[in-house]
Amino acid sequence: MSGKASHSEKILSRADLVMLAVGNVIGGGIMAVTGIAIGMTGRSAVWAFLFACVLVLFEAIPQFFAGGTIRMNGGFYTQAAMFGGKYFAGLYAVIFISFFFGASMYALSFADYVLDFFPNVNGRLIAFACLTVFYLINLFGVKIAAKVQYVLVVVLIIALSTFIGFGVSEIKPGFFGGDDFFFGGFNGFMSATALLSMAPSGAVFIINFGKQCKKPTKDIPFAIIVGTLVVSLLYTGMAFVAAGVLPVEEVAGKSLGLVAAEIFPRPIYIFFMVGGAMVALVTSLNALFGWITPPLAQACEDGWFPRFLAAENKRFGTNHWIMTIIYLLTASIIIFGWDMSTIANVGNFLASAATVVISLCLLTLPKKIPDLWEKSPFHVSPGVYKAGCIVSALVDIMFCYFLAIELTKADVIGLFIYLGVALVYPYLMLKYSKSGVEIEVSYEEA
Predict the structure, then answer these.
(1) For 156, what's the count of Cα atoms within 13 Å in the CB-facing half-sphere?
(2) Rounded CA gap, 444 and 3, in Å?
(3) Which residues pair with 181 in a beta bridge?
(4) Rounded CA separation 263/245 (Å)
């Protein structure tokens, strides 16, 4: 077996990973984009949530195979480099930068909930302050961030369960009747499904914590499954309440604060808004700073981007330059005033495009590491394995299409320019870079 073994401290347990997975999943979906999805398809957003969860399980199949076979110290980037080769590693690295859109969405959604309490404050300033706080927390290391996540996720689950418990009795009769289902037609329903897919799919990003896991091949697949299932159950209950308490036209495009104000006594409303909505968003923001840096650090070390950016803080072991760049990119989206719907659709489109690259690269896993594959607890026949990877890629291509039809022509042109740069950049770097791209695949048998 070849590969660069990492000597970093293995500090994350199974419980840490489950908490990071749950915290990363909750927030981007139910809190940030439920109102947008209701605006696309009405009360059938409930079915869109369920359908999205099913599709995400198909999308995650290659990650069960890969995450259950080896420890990959650069997360998804290592997968692209190891199983797709240099060009695909560079392609993935460029697309992966765009995941910072998620951070801007979480911060802006957090600000929307603050505005429910203080409507006269500057929402963009609140979003910027939220982003800054969690940027600083993550500069002090992943273990501190994980401890913060424990506390926040426990409070979060209590708050969301309270929303469901109070809200079910307030759902108006005739939920499944009338004209409030599928009013955006098939395209509206599928666009809502594609948008909501970002919610349950968040658990797979703990793959990027492989470098810091104690038992990655056992704990990462477990955390992905448990995180996805736990949140799917919460989402289903919350979606019924979100779409069934108030008229659809009142909640379309709005935060869950409107529904919470309708069903809760004032003290519980405050607890939900703070302990549920706001905590949901900051747990996702907190987790994102952790999982976005390892792949980019590996890409810098390999020469796709300036190598000095991969430098680690000697005391805390964090990639401070990369975190700072992600922070500045996210802040620019907030400052320039992009609207939430565009941020969500653009960010999710690029995330799905990146997953297509990974799914296709992982087709070669059984041939590249045959000995480890034979010992993998997820070992299956070649035909079944390839079918899983292809289905995953097709699901993401479908997501890209239905997300794109919700964007303006200018947005779509911008997306394809970005993807064009991503396709050309690694070719130019491999051919003309003076410093050279030297990929040293960083993985370990675990």
Answers:
(1) 28
(2) 7
(3) 42
(4) 8
